[in-house]
Amino acid sequence: MSDLLSRRLALLDSAEQRDLLRHCRHGLEKESLRVDPAGHLALTPHPQALGSALTHAQITTDYSEALLEFITAAEEDPARSLDELDAIHRFAYAQMGEELLWTHSMPCKLPAEADIPIAEYGSSHIGRIKHVYRKGLAVRYGKAMQCIAGIHYNFSLPEALWPLLQQAEGDSRPAQDWQSERYVALIRNFRRYSWLLMYLFGASPAVCASFLKEREHNLETLGEGTLYLPWATSLRMSDLGYQNNAQASLRPCYNDLDSYLASLRQAVSTPYPPYEAIGLQKDGEWQQLNTNVLQIENEFYSSIRPKRVANSGERPIQALGARGVQYVEVRCLDIDPFLPLGIDLVAARFLDAFLLYCALEDSPNMAGDECRECTSNFALTVKEGRKPGLALQQHGEARELTAWGLELLERIEACAALLDTAHGSDLHQLALNAQRAKLEDPSLTPSARVLRSLREDNLSFFAFAQRQSERHAAWFRSRPLDAESQAAFTQSARDSLAAQAQLEQEQQGSFEEFVERYMAAIEPSA
């Protein structure tokens, strides 16, 4: 443990500050494909009973019309976020007829690319922006890749924590700059150690062979219709999942917020010849929002993002630039197919301890060599994380994954203990112990459990994922919401449809002018 971490922990463990860490905030975003009873991608429209995907605060869609995304509020107790996620699932199942939610990160059997429906958001300018952006994703990366699903874990430390640390460390910068700098430091440490999360929580070691039809790959065959890698943890997070040649040279600097924002502004303003060849429009139909490296900043795929709640009409990058970092969004979590919600409280409590450690531990700036090392460690873990004796690199030195992981848990343990002291429990310590068991016995990891189910039950990936989806659907359907909760969700759906209709009635000007203003808002000169 570094001296800096020890001092910060001691400061927060004082009697007058002990309650502070009860006020961390947690939010969840979970994606799931809608499928028909046979496990094929649903080609039906977004159910109107779920409300407007454009304006509903809890239920929207991601890339495809069939890719639902459920969003919870930010709560101080992660149990409340999971309860809200559970309620959203129960409401959705009451409106979906025979359709199921696919409870795996890698997709079901997909139709031909042309038949995968892109999400629709109505005729308002902002709704059309969202649709055209997704058309751009289709022509740039293909539709199948956009049907991969995951869970995003939003986390913030208490606002009162930052001035306390700033004063103790004698820093005289504006408070907003200090808070942003500390969140960016958290992100650097996350980059250093996030390979551990892939080992512990990766749950996609296999895919349906149909997902990679006509694509080159180095996967092995595991029975008919299943491709896998024997030591993989998360093929979703490998180069088989989200890949982008244009982004290969885009490595935003996480050494300060300004340089990170500048790199994204540059990317949304720099033409990329292959995208220029596609063109902006074809036969009068928009193909993409622009022909640059990124259409918008959200197109940059990363395992973690700095975030700030944006005001109406404000771009994410504008919000960050104006008011600094408010929370982080962890984006690398697979859906655990053994859990109805895809995540549980044990994972959430360990993530809290892990992220607190990343925030409080010393986090020097990262030079290019260390950045490349971190990227390599992550990539190696998602493809070979359970391989006996696997070695990663730390400052040019080989580190055996298991030993390094156990050493990290020893350091994180102090943060888990501090959280338990604040909450008057031992739940964070128990969550950490559960992760230690996975390092000592790789067969306990979700990725190993998936492969064991395929082999022992003689199932293809598709049959396994279909079975788990049916089991979870039955569990949610057996627990309908009470009348009051059902009525509240129904009213929220109606309100969102009315809000979308109002947007469509009140908009002014042409779509072309709207796109031009939208793009100009974050150009480098802005």
3D architecture notes:
The radius of gyration is 23 Å and the shape is globular. A hairpin with a 2-residue loop joins strand 13 and strand 14. The protein has 526 residues and is α+β, with helices and mostly antiparallel strands. The model has no long low-confidence stretch (mean pLDDT 94). The chain contains 17 helices and 14 strands. The longest helix is centred in the last third of the chain and has 24 residues, at 483-506. The protein has a single domain, classed as Creatine Kinase, Chain A, domain 2 (2-Layer Sandwich).
Task: Outline the secondary-structure elements.
Blueprint: H1 3-12, E1 25-35, E2 59-61, E3 67-71, H2 78-95, E4 100-102, H3 125-141, E5 151-156, H4 161-168, H5 175-193, H6 195-201, E6 206-208, E7 220-221, E8 226-228, H7 257-267, H8 273-278, E9 281-282, E10 285-286, E11 304-307, H9 316-323, E12 327-333, H10 345-360, H11 368-384, E13 391-394, E14 397-400, H12 401-423, H13 427-440, H14 446-456, H15 461-477, H16 483-506, H17 511-520
Antiparallel strand pairs: 1-3, 1-4, 1-5, 2-3, 5-12, 6-8, 7-8, 9-10, 11-12, 13-14
Helix pairs in contact: 5-10, 6-11, 10-12, 10-13, 12-13
EC number: 6.3.2.2
GO molecular function, one term: ATP binding
Keywords: ATP-binding, Glutathione biosynthesis, Ligase, Nucleotide-binding
